[in-house]
UniProtKB/TrEMBL annotation:
HTH tetR-type domain segment(s): 10-56
Organism from which the protein derives: Microscilla marina ATCC 23134
InterPro entries tied to this protein: Homeodomain-like_sf, HTH_TetR, Tet_transcr_reg_TetR-rel_C_sf, YxaF_TetR_C
Protein name: Probable transcriptional regulator, putative
Stretches assigned to the Transcriptional regulator LmrA/YxaF-like C-terminal domain: 82-177
Single GO MF descriptor: DNA binding
Pfam family, one: TetR_N
SUPFAM superfamilies found in the cross-reference section: Homeodomain-like, Tetracyclin repressor-like, C-terminal domain
Organism phylogeny: Bacteria, Pseudomonadati, Bacteroidota, Cytophagia, Cytophagales
Length: 190
């Protein structure tokens, strides 16, 4: 396997730290330590500093999650199966980190009122791309554009809110109950 480039290693370390510590808790020295990248590479690849690093890490995290969503939101999957897979994916992320890490975009987005506008916009763009992926799947399942848009927004809000509650309570029951509610609302209850 090819060795990862320093920029990729720095971004992956930042995504990992963001999921646990958010923007303010993620220090550049921690990124360097976790990535084991030379200090000079941080300033070479991210000459605009922490904001640039965080924005690119937000974009990477967004792409990674969107890729997972698109794998689960394939037309062959029925709605219930797709939603179960998505909620299970997020529950597994929490469990594998002993509830220390959550959605890296959400942890930064929660701080976005205090951050530079370009960081907030990066979070917004990621959420918009996830919303679009969910909405397109729902439209493929026969929902009208209007209803698919509403359900996609509700789904995303429900997932992110239940991720937060599951992390706080160190229990995935919030995600499980969120899935039940979403299936009931969408009329896919067993």
């Amino acid at each position: 396997m090819a060795k990862k480039k320093p920029k990729q290693v720095l971004l992956e370390a930042t995504v990992s730290l963001m999921g646990e510590k958010g923007y303010f808790g993620t220090g550049l020295s921690e990124v360097l330590s976790l990535s084991q990248a030379p200090k000079g590479s941080l300033y070479y690849y991210f000459p605009q500093g922490k904001n640039q690093l965080m924005i690119e890490a937000i974009q990477l995290a967004g792409t990674q999650v969107n890729d997972v969503l698109r794998q689960m939101l394939v037309p062959q999957n029925d709605l219930k199966v797709a939603l179960q897979q998505i909620f299970s994916f997020f529950a597994q992320q929490l469990l594998s980190s002993d509830f220390k890490k959550s959605c890296p975009v959400a942890t930064v987005a929660a701080e976005s009122a205090s951050l530079a506008e370009e960081v907030r916009l990066a979070c917004e763009q990621v959420y918009a791309s996830w919303h679009t992926s969910i909405q397109q799947f729902l439209e493929q399942k026969g929902l009208s554009n209007t209803l698919a848009e509403k359900y996609a927004r509700f789904s995303l809000n429900l997932i992110e809110g239940n991720l937060l509650m599951s992390r706080v309570f160190k229990d995935t029951k919030h995600l499980e109950q969120g899935l039940e509610v979403l299936l009931e609302v969408m009329g896919s209850k067993e």
